[in-house]
Amino acid sequence: MTAHGSTETAIQALRLRVHDYLLKPAPPAQIVASVKKGLARREARVKGRGASSLAPTDEPVFEFRFKDGTVADLSRRMIRKNKKVAHLTPAEGRLLHVLLVNSGKVFSHRELVLLVQGYDTSPQEAPEVLRPLVSRLRHKLEDFPDLMNSISSVRGTGYVYEANGN
Predict the structure, then answer these.
(1) Which of 123, 132, 126 is nearest to 112 (CA)?
(2) In the predicted model, what is the mean pLDDT of residues 16-24?
(3) Which of 37, 39, 70, 101 is the most buried (most CB within 10 A)?
(4) What is the bridge-based pairing of β-strands 71-73 and 78-81?
(5) Range of 32's domain?
(6) Mean pLDDT across the chain, nearest whole number?
(7) What b/e sequence results for 82-104 when a residue is b if at least 16 CB atoms lie within 10 Å of its CB, and e otherwise?
(8) Which of 57-61, 70-74, 126-130, 132-136 bottoms out in mean pLDDT, i.e. has the lowest?
(9) Is 88 within the bounds of a domain?
(10) Is 126 within a domain?
(11) Closest by CA position to 46, among listed 116, 103, 97
């Protein structure tokens, strides 16, 4: 939405893959219609990619137990082993859940942003959105080395969780 619309800014917006270009003052009905249209497009993209089958489901697969005694209780967004506990943010919990449920699958940065944060990004922007989240998650998992070391960066692609027999 802009108060200073021009052909140049409209072209730039299209290049950045915006779904709509509104000039101020826009009537509320037009804004609501634009948001609905954007959400419908996003839902269609998610279904088209089959990503919904990779996202956390309604099935109660929220607790993961590892050989070293680590327990990832993702319903409570908590990792624990003996007396050590790490609390995860909702986004960290969703990221860990997607990776654990899909052990061995390499996810692109872009796929993970869509599955974890719920929005689509450009291939250039996705790593920048995801890196801080992965960094915070890895920092919290430092007390749980078997779990932390099972999450690997795939250079130029994204991330994977490899069970290593856990």
Answers:
(1) 126
(2) 69
(3) 70
(4) antiparallel
(5) 7-49
(6) 81
(7) eeeebebeeebbbbbbbbbbbee
(8) 57-61
(9) yes
(10) yes
(11) 116
